[in-house]
Amino acid sequence: MIDSIKGASAHTEPEQQPAEEKDVAVYNPDDQPFTTTFDVSETGNPVEFTIPGRQIKTFPEKIARHLKKHLATQLLNKRGNKTVGRVRLSWENSYNEYYKETEVNL
After folding, report:
1. Would you call 60 helix, strand, or coil by DSSP?
2. How many CA atoms lie within 13 Å of 46's alpha carbon, on the beta-carbon side?
3. What does pTM read for this prediction?
4. What is the pLDDT of residues 12-40, one digit of tens each?
5. How far apart are CA 97 and CA 103, in angstroms?
6. 3 state DSSP class of 86
7. CA dist., res. 37 & res. 70, Å (int)
């Protein structure tokens, strides 16, 4: 039985090209530029990305997600927890609100 499996020709699927990643817009709501690095190719050589203050830039989706996470964290650290009325939001809810501020629908 093992011989018959070894001798059988393997069926190979046609090689699929990776789907092209869509560009996603990221808005920096702060008045200062936001700069961070990201090891895009996972080779240990991070690339620097900057979004000027109060401006929008587009990036491939994977990079945009990374930038929005770090930008939301920076905004939270700089501005502190958000307040709705007299209620101070938790760190997580504040982070989520800052993350929403970075999103743009073009």
Report:
1. strand
2. 9
3. 0.75
4. 555 555 567 799 999 999 999 999 999 99
5. 10
6. coil
7. 10
